[in-house]
Amino acid sequence: MAVLPRVEINLEKIRHNAKTLKQLFGRKGISITGVVKGVTADLNIAGALVEAGITSLADSKIANIEKMRKAGIKADLILLRSPGISEVEKTVRYADISMNTELDTIRALSAEAVRQQKTHKIILMVEMGDLREGILLKDAPAMIREIFTCPGIELAGIGTNFACFGGVLPTEQKMQTFSRFVQAMQELFSLKLPYVSGGNSANYNWAVKTKDAEAVNNVRLGESILLGRETSGGHIIPSLYQDAFCFVAEVIESKIKPSVPYGTIGKNAFGEQVTFIDRGNRRRTIISAGRHDVLVSGLTPVRPFHIIGSSSDHIILDTKDAVLVPGDEVRFYMNYGAMLRAMTSPYVYKTYVHGAATTEPYKQQFLLSRGTRQNRPPETEKNPAN
């Protein structure tokens, strides 16, 4: 009997997406680092990326880097964010490379690298306007000079980030400014950097349109590989699969009920004031998953159902004319937030499809970008957490 709720993962579709993107970016002289933080560095998925020819993998959690290292994943392992001082020992032990912005942290890594008799590589992250991590460009020369004084540390790259915190896009002008800055640093310090990491899945449109990537030779791709979308607008990337991940849950109740709660109305269990439109009696179907398990706003039912709302352990659907019974399965497409929550949840089982992808890359024009909630009916639009 199938275990529910679960995420079904098609490894061949993930391999296809990775290979396609590797070729696409490769034509511009750009390598790919596969970002696996959204799937908790799942070893089957990490292995599929390596099989697709990706030679570096990145995660923001040192525990996931450790997991991949101990499993013998054959790739350079990159800690995707600056390590905390408390994580320095494990960072040097398990990560080949870490991204850094603070000199105190780099010095701590240096001391630990000397203690472990290792060389630890770093990518210095610089600020291009998104205002997440990064040093200001004007501060880079002094920082690089200090890095050169740290034993056991090798400056392996310079990187930047776009469209994560502030939503700043990697325009052609921004990318040219970044490239010219990196070129100036390489000339000033006689450097040849293996990693000039120019961004993430938001860089897809730039990569397709640009005639010259200049200094950029690497991007960090997670969502575009896993879900076949670029992240600046959440648009589908041609020739990629968007359904490599499918969330499946079981029907536990299906009854005709009023469409509006009755009685004195207050806030729900999450402190939300929910409003409803009276549609008369409707078939309401409840499935065995909720906010404990998945980001409900990031789900889109495969069948033409509406998500009415959710609690910790229930998702309530309007199934229209479809009559479902307890034990039936309901399937959903997921956006990145839903995938991340489901892959992180210990209550959601993970199953794998190892065979060849038997369908063409998914063509249906639904939008599953971050923040999109078009799967919800009008009466719950005022409930931002549904």
Automatic annotation (TrEMBL):
UniProt keyword Isomerase present: yes
Which parts of the sequence belong to the Alanine racemase N-terminal domain?
9-225
Q: Which organism is it from?
A: Heyndrickxia coagulans (Weizmannia coagulans)
Keyword Protease annotated: no
PANTHER family linked: ALANINE RACEMASE (PTHR30511), LYSINE RACEMASE (PTHR30511:SF3)
What is this protein's name? Alanine racemase
Its needed co-factors are: pyridoxal 5'-phosphate
One matching Pfam family, short form?
A: Ala_racemase_N
